[in-house]
Amino acid sequence: MRAGAVPDRGFTVIELLVAVVIMAMVLIPVARMQADLSRRHARQAVLLDRFTAMHNALALLRGLNPLAEPSGRRLLAPGLLLQWRATRVSEVRRSLRFLGGEGDFDVALFRIDAQILRSSGGMPMRFAIERLGWRAIPGSAPSVTSCP
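== Type II secretion system protein GspI ==
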């Protein structure tokens, strides 16, 4: 050490301020990116819940016979209720056999208007599908080839 020299005692105030500014320039974009990722994750979770509810509702309606059950409601999951109402869009007709002739069922086309309601409130998810309704004709034994 030279005579009259000031011993090193760490950072100067200017050096400290420059370091803080550089750290802020790095950390602010990282914090924004983290907040954006959190928002995107929350949005993806909501979309996944909606997709799962819609998938379950369609699976339930796929097995529905609207001629036998034109309206109703079913619990899809805790807090999710599916409601539907079927409207006939064609006249009831006799089915046809695979190789010709009349079949063993009366059939009609239905439009099913459905909605999924949440017990927590919020906007219901509404959708519509078309589905064939059927009923066996009394006195005829259904064959494998004549099922709708």
